[in-house]
Specification:
The protein is mainly α and 205 residues long. Helix content is 59%, strand content 4%. The chain has 2 domains: 66 residues, no CATH class; 123 residues, no CATH class. α3 crosses α4 and α6 packs across α8. The radius of gyration is 22 Å and the shape is elongated.
């Protein structure tokens, strides 16, 4: 288990007493802050009933969140952050435009808009079929999956790509949880690649 989150690097500068204060006043802190305090105290060899109780509450909260996600969208693992989904779209769009621009500059190529139109689906279908990731997703360690952790079929990838032609479809990924139209219509999800094994394990239970 990777015992790192947004708070761990900051909290390593705190004393044990300061970390214990966080556990004593959980209502003043978000769960990730409490979790970071527990991890660092464990690293320092501390053990206490208070730490055990705090960890139990966090585990219960994660279980409740997992059950709610599975009920709402069909997957127990958290989908990738909506801001990162937007970043995927920006990176992939820039790469597609750059490739089209380079081809247009080649002297011996009869460039036309048909190529530009065709390159878009080829880009997405190739990368999501072969790698389950576009370059934009690779940058953020994101991967496309079914709810059981299996790779999407070529048919699903083609349908995901076709859905991207719908006006403003990209903005459908900006909700919480992030599950865009091209995800919903193909029953696929974009999650952290590092969560894939955890997803497979949970769906085998």
């Amino acid at each position: 288990m990777n015992k790192q989150n947004h708070f761990t690097s900051k909290f390593r500068k705190k004393t044990n007493q300061e970390l214990e204060y966080i556990l004593e006043n959980p209502s003043n802190y978000v769960p990730n802050a409490i979790q970071a305090a527990i991890w660092i105290l464990e690293e320092r060899g501390s053990e206490s009933e208070q730490m055990s109780n705090a960890q139990e509450k966090i585990d219960d909260l994660h279980q409740q969140q997992s059950m709610k996600r599975e009920k709402d969208i069909g997957i127990p693992i958290q989908t990738q952050d909506s801001n990162l989904r937007l970043l995927h779209w920006i990176i992939d769009s820039m790469l597609i435009q750059a490739a089209v621009y380079v081809v247009a500059l080649l002297p011996d190529v009869d460039f036309n808009m048909l190529f530009a139109f065709a390159f878009f689906p080829v880009y997405y279908i190739y990368f999501e079929t072969k790698y389950r990731q576009t370059p934009g997703k690779m940058v953020t360690d994101s991967i496309v999956t079914y709810a059981d952790g299996k790779a999407p079929t070529t048919k699903s990838v083609i349908l995901r790509t076709a859905a991207r032609y719908i006006p403003f479809e990209a903005f459908s990924c900006l909700g919480q949880p992030s599950w865009g139209w091209h995800d919903q219509w193909t029953k696929t999800y974009v999650i952290k690649k590092s969560d894939l094994e955890k997803l497979k394990k949970q769906t085998r239970i």
